[in-house]
Amino acid sequence: MKDQLIIFDTTLRDGEQSPGASMTRDEKLRIARQLERMKVDVIEAGFAAASNGDFEAVRSIAEAIKDSTVCSLARASENDIRRSGEAIRPAARGRIHTFIATSPIHMEKKLRMTPDQVVEQAVKSIAWAREYTDDVEFSAEDAGRSEIDFLVRIFDAVIKAGATTINVPDTVGYNVPEQYAATMRTLIERVPNSDKVIWSVHCHNDLGLAVSNSLAAVMVGARQVECTINGLGERAGNASLEEIVMAVRTRADVFPVETRIDATQIVPASRLVSQVTGYAVQPNKAIVGANAFAHESGIHQDGVLKHRETYEIMRAEDVGWGANKLVLGKHSGRNAFRARLQELGIEVESEEQLNLAFASFKDLADKKHEIFDQDLHALMSDEAITPEIEHYRLVASRFHSETGETPQAELTLSAGGKETRAKATGSGPVDAAFKAIESVAASGSELLLYSVNAITTGTDAQGEVTVRLARDGRIVNGQGADTDIIVASAKAYLNALNKLHAGTEKLNPQV
Ligand code: KIV
Ligand code: ZN
Asked: Between the CA atoms of 115, 118, 120 and 121, what dihedral angle is there, to the nearest 10 degrees?
């Protein structure tokens, strides 16, 4: 019998700290449902004290998710912990994850606290958290650069106070595998009652070592790995879930652990996260990159045709490649449409929303014969279907682009319920469309990213556009999808403006 390795996914919290990756409540819910389908053990749903929106997102996930533990992050302060406690209250299984920095540089320069004060605050925090749940995780932020004697002291104290999981983050991605494993081994040996808690790792990827460091610690006793889909996360990201899970599974001869993960849900999860956040997956990314199972050289192709295992250590279908099956077409009815949305975990909140979505589906089916799961995800992300954040909407458009002529866009926009016309020229029709929108919105925002991807294959595929805008220190991502990529671009720009318009200020937990 192997030990179970707990997979703790923090895509919705640390992943969301990637610039521009902030997600709406509905987007988070959709990802949480996919994580539950994948059988993730713990979903870190957010940082409840960051904003009212974050609180609501954690609470909605706690209400909706039944098969995974739902966790909220909290700084070691009474207010943060009580907000987290309230947010996870509806969960079938809820966890509070509280943290405080323990490295000399963080304690002295950031917290301006003495080590004694840090220990005292950590212990009080565990007691506050235990008022809400007996599943309490403690993280020593920047443990990777902390003194081992101090880590032993603080972990001893928080375990006595009731912490059940002890996390040892390499917050700045500074560690190397042997050293990180040695730290973990020493802690497990020296901390009293270390066998009564789960030891956890949380590694950042600044030196590209997050997965290696995490797995090195698993070899010496860590039994929880904190990771994210596609390795999303603060700066260079976190350890990637798909790499951890498939390393443990593929090298079962080496690792003393197994996970509960349904690996066939990995590629759908990767695509969903990429679609929602606008973070494209690099083609050569392990497991989920478009080329991860492609054999280009003749020698490799020949080998694989003769015997697959000559060049393949995993099977593409085992991680969910090919799962994006043809689902619906022009003649599919409302019930088939509703059923497929349910299978994909896409919640439709009202009959009105379903009617709007079904009308958009029929429009799409007129333009495109085969509708795939990814099309449905894109369609349901369309803000026409989530009207609560909609301030600006594209009503009609006309674009002119001709050799030797200046491209032009003429748009009819609805702004706060009032229709307005706008016209502009630009270096291309997309540029003209954005200028026309700005002539109405005057947002004063800066365009950080514009990217177009084909959602599926074929020239009738929908183009999926991401627009990242920044204003006054806030960064948002807008998405739009359409078979016409100029329309998709205008929708994405308006979606980003709507998020800027609706947005409440958020705190970053580490600040
Ligand atoms: O990187 C880090 O230290 C964190 C903690 C809050 C766990 O994200
Ligand atoms: Zn982190």
From this structure: 170
**493: amino acid identity, one letter:** Y
User: Which atom of ligand 1 lies closest to the CA of 99?
Assistant: 6
Residue 42 pairs with which residues in a beta bridge?
8, 69
Rounded to 5°, angle at Cα 57 from 352 and 371: 45
For residue 10, the CA-to-ligand 2 centroid distance in Å is 8
**Torsion, CA 184, CA 186, CA 189, CA 192, rounded to 10:** -90
Ligand 1, atom nearest to 13 Cα: 8
Amino acid residing at 304: V
Q: Which of 8, 9, 14, 106 to mutate to test the pocket of ligand 1 (most atoms within 8 A of CB)?
A: 14
Around ion ligand 2, residues with a beta carbon closer than 5 Å are 14
CA of 131 from ligand 2 middle (Å) equals 25
**How far is ligand 2, taken at its centre, from the CA of residue 202, in Å?**
6
- Say how many Å lie between the CA of residue 204 and the centre of ligand 1: 9
Q: How far is residue 181's CA from residue 159's CA, in Å, rounded to a whole number? A: 21
Distance, CA 79 to ligand 1 centroid (Å)?
Answer: 19
CATH code: domain 3-277 is 3.20.20.70
Fold that domain 387-502 belongs to in CATH? Double Stranded RNA Binding Domain (3.30.160)
Does the CA dihedral 272-275-280-283 come out positive or negative? positive
Give pTM, 2 decimals. 0.87
Domain ranges of the chain: 3-277, 293-320, 334-382, 387-502
> What is the arrangement of strands in the sheet containing 408-415, beginning at the earlier edge strand?
392-400, 408-415, 418-425
The string of pLDDT tens digits covering residues 389-438 is 689 999 999 999 999 999 999 999 999 999 999 999 999 999 999 999 99
Whole-angstrom Cα distance, residue 386 to residue 26? 9
- Closest residue by Cα to atom 1, ligand 1, is 171
